[in-house]
Amino acid sequence: MSELAIPELCLVVLVGASGSGKSTFAARNFGRFETLSSDTFRGMVSNDENSQEASEAAFEALNFVAGKRLEAGLLTVIDATSVQTEARRQLVSLARAHDVLPVAIVLDVPLAVSLAHNALRTDRSLEPRVIKRQQDQLRRSARNLGREGFRRIHTLGSMAEVDAASIRREP
Ligand code: CTP
Ligand code: MG
After folding, report:
1. Is the CB of 21 under 6 A from ligand 1?
2. Three-class SS state of 105
């Protein structure tokens, strides 16, 4: 059982390919309103959680809500793949704008695990090459997270590590 220490008030950015288990991890470790999922926001602005066309509007809405929560002093978790540098850059600047620390939790599980989860899903199914690309982006990003401004970086390298991890909030 490993405890991931994070500040009581911070912006937690989950980083992981589709199927890596981000939403499952968030549901287990954070409160219902603490996690803002890009898919939920896609759904709210377009009626379709999987609509890539809705991404811009979805992230605009997600950023707005995250900002309100941080203003209110509430820890907030961003549940999106965040494997692209630009996506993370916007989240780091959101955290900075509200004077809270950006924290990354990286679900760097083997590609085969994400692919297997994806194949079993009934809610969504992506082409394997899309997941492979996300995993490649994650691998290339991993060593840059500190430079990007993340103040704590926790990397979980297997499904067993993801399942064994819990969060410790530090005052
Ligand atoms: N899953 C599983 N065992 C785990 C974690 C996840 O069987 N320990 C399954 C979930 O039940 C789900 C699928 O794998 O059907 C994907 O997990 P999810 O947490 O939804 O992955 P995300 O990373 O959130 O994927 P996405 O980016 O597409 O939202
Ligand atoms: Mg998810």
Report:
1. yes
2. strand
